[in-house]
Design brief:
Blueprint (H helix, E strand, L loop, with lengths): L6 E3 L14 H15 L4 E4 L6 H11 L6 E3 L8 H25 L8 H28 L1 E2 L5 E2 H15 L10 H4 L15 H5 L13 H6 L7 H10 L14 H16 L1
Parallel strand pairs: 1-2, 2-3
Antiparallel strand pairs: 4-5
Organism: Favolaschia claudopus
InterPro entries: Integrase_dom_put
Protein name: Integrase core domain-containing protein
Length: about 270
């Protein structure tokens, strides 16, 4: 590709979805946050997941459909992201997934129980975010051997400076349409494939149906926490420090939260 912001790859990770850590609307919000930091990408490549619909609309509104601004395909065509997911799984997601599975195993977590479900989110969301932030920092600072041992941050900044000097950074930083029209544009044939379990549920076409409300999302099998529930729970537990070290990886904090919320509503 031409350089920084010519093409972004995106993908949602749903490893923690069964425990309520999932909001399709969050993807669009995260995209806009990234744009505020790095600027608009010329094009994006993503899969057919419904969570990508909002980003696709934003990209088309910015550049138009003829620009091929959002390139959709199956996950096997977006496998460059798998390089990132391997580290995210290893450094963050698997650790918390095992904690949640253990809580279920010892009957301290029932995802059908709204108090358990919301307390799990309120207690562990900041802990997961802290771990993800550390992974992001480590990833962006790691040196790439094939790029002269430059960090990813350095590679981006050098490419950005080049675009500024040549006068196209504030316009379209991407490749010509003739290049971007190649079906294999932005693909990496040497990147690892997604896990087999993800390929089994990988959508083969875009789905633009919208959920009218949270109840409809739950009816469709999307375990999701209502914003009002989360806000109320946080207010009741406002005196707790969810990032504190309880000596048990957050599980004692979770149990304390469940007891306090139960007492609040049942007492």
């Amino acid at each position: 590709v031409r350089g920084a912001n010519a093409l972004w790859h995106m993908d949602g990770n749903e490893k923690l979805r069964p425990w309520g850590f999932y909001r399709s609307a969050t993807v669009e919000a995260l995209f806009l946050h990234a744009v505020s930091i790095y600027g608009w990408p010329s094009r994006m490549r993503g899969d057919f997941g419904k969570e990508n619909n909002g980003v696709e609309r934003r990209m088309i509104a910015r550049w138009g459909e003829a620009h091929r601004s959002y390139i959709r395909g199956r996950s096997t065509q977006n496998i460059r992201m798998e390089r990132n997911w391997r580290d995210v799984r290893k450094d963050t997601l698997e650790f918390f997934r095992e904690i949640f599975m253990y809580l279920v195993e010892i009957n301290l977590l029932d995802m059908e129980n709204p108090i358990h479900r919301v307390c799990l989110f309120v207690v562990f969301q900041p802990r997961i975010q802290k771990s993800l932030d550390e992974t992001i920092t480590s990833w962006n600072l790691h040196k790439v051997r094939t790029a002269g041992n430059k960090s990813l941050n350095a590679i981006f900044q050098l490419s950005r400076e080049k675009a500024i000097n040549r006068g196209y950074w504030t316009g379209d930083p991407g490749d010509p349409l003739s290049t971007a029209s190649d079906p294999h544009y932005g693909q990496d044939p040497e990147a690892p494939l997604p896990p087999a379990d993800e390929l089994q549920t990988d959508p083969t076409a875009a789905d633009y149906t919208e959920y009218p409300d949270v109840a409809a999302e739950r009816e469709a099998g999307v375990v999701i926490n209502d914003d009002d529930e989360v806000s109320e729970c946080r207010e009741i537990l406002s005196g707790m420090d969810f990032l504190s070290d309880d000596g048990n990886w957050g599980m004692d904090l979770y149990c304390t939260a469940v007891m306090r919320i139960t007492e609040h509503f049942m007492g």
